[in-house]
Amino acid sequence: MYKNLLFTLLIMAGMQFLSSCAGCSDSGKKSQGDALTLPDSLISDAPLRLSEEIMNEVIGNISSPVEMAGLFKNSGVDFTQRILNNPDNVSRYETSYQRALNLGVYSADLGYINTFDKNNIVVSYLLAVKNLADGIRVGQFFDFNALRRMASSSTNLDSLMEMSQTSFNKMDSYLREQNRSNVSSLIVTGAWVEGMYIASNIVRESGDKELSDRIAEQKNVVNILEIILSNYASDAGFAELVQSVEDLKAAYAPVRITTELGEPQRIEKDGSLIFIQAEVSTVHYSPEDLENIMATIENIRAKIVN
Q1: Domain of 39?
Q2: Distance between CA 58 and CA 39 in Å, rounded?
Q3: Residue 48 exposed, middle or buried by CB count within 10 Å (0-12, 13-18, 19+)
Q4: Which residue in 78, 23, 26 sits closest to 206, CA to CA?
Q5: 239 lies in a domain?
Q6: Could you give the CA distance from residue 194 to residue 301 in angstroms, rounded to a whole number?
Q7: How many domains does the chain have?
Q8: Is 1 contained in some domain?
Q9: How many CB atoms lie within 10 A of CB 18?
Q10: CA atoms in the 13 A half-sphere facing the CB of 120
């Protein structure tokens, strides 16, 4: 589920740099999460321009916060619908910008709902997703009638989420193939913000250390989001969103992530034995740092859903 990422970004006139993963564990355990690391020389106030091809690769490599759903349940905190975006809010979202952002929000909510097997409210969230997808002309990727039938039985929830995820993947691929990566980037951002918002609420209630680390390690993802969104700063709504991400980047500034080489791992691939260099990563932050990050995330989320 959590995989190490190593990919090359070509920026400006063919400049190359590597973005590698950094996990999160103050105890020095092997990385369990994805974090995309930028060299300090490329993290500046000036926006970097990415080609459409590279934008597609970056967006595709940012892990959806839906993948954090297992940590939500492991925290021991009971399911709370009040922290999710109310499906009735769909009528508020009248622009493509709002619809794309909140399509991401509801996708993260669905992951949280599925984790706790709350099939009694799944349909209303699927309907919200369908309405927003129709609003940005990608509703053809969601067979709502089939999804609704599957949602009527708790025994079908795994298949339901698999089908939903397949629909989202097809939709994302279509958007990027149609040179609508600006829309795809909004969906990714909305999903990421909602996942961090849910995680923040759970941390406030439980103090869960693993989730706290997961929030803190997202510093590198924020750097990537800033680059992605800055490419569309001239589009309606994006300038304000970029400013919000810059505020979040400032909140993450005190967080440090250090990485050391661990023992190589042996795996078999295509009949051959290969070695993969493991990494041991540690995230360093104070309770005050975490509180400031969570407060900033909550502020951004409020702007998106209201």
Answers
A1: 6-305
A2: 16
A3: middle
A4: 78
A5: yes
A6: 7
A7: 1
A8: no
A9: 11
A10: 3
Q: 217, exposed or middle or buried, with CB in 10 Å at 0-12, 13-18, 19+? A: buried
SS3 for 141-174, per residue? HCCHHHHHHHHCCHHHHHHHHHHHHHHHHHHHHH
In-domain check, residue 232 = yes
| Cα–Cα dist 254/1, whole Å | 28
Annotate 257-306 with DSSP letters as a single string: EEEEE---EEEEETTEEEEE--EEEEEE--HHHHHHHHHHHHHHHHHHH-
Q: Which residues pair with 243 in a beta bridge?
A: none
CB proximity list for 296: less than 8 A, separation 6 or greater: 247, 248, 251
Whether 158 is in a domain gets the answer: yes
Rg (C-alpha) for the chain, rounded Å, is 19
pLDDT, position 5: 24
Question: Could you tell me the two tokens for 32?
Answer: 């369990």
pLDDT tens for the chain, residues 1 to 306: 222 222 222 222 122 222 223 333 343 333 333 333 333 333 334 444 555 555 555 555 554 444 566 678 778 888 999 999 999 999 999 999 999 999 989 988 988 887 787 878 888 888 898 899 889 888 777 666 666 665 555 555 556 556 666 666 677 677 767 767 788 889 889 988 998 999 999 999 999 998 999 899 999 889 888 988 988 888 778 999 999 999 999 999 999 999 887 777 777 777 777 777 677 789 999 999 999 999 999 999 999 999
Asked whether the beta carbons of 66 and 36 are under 8 A apart, the reply is no
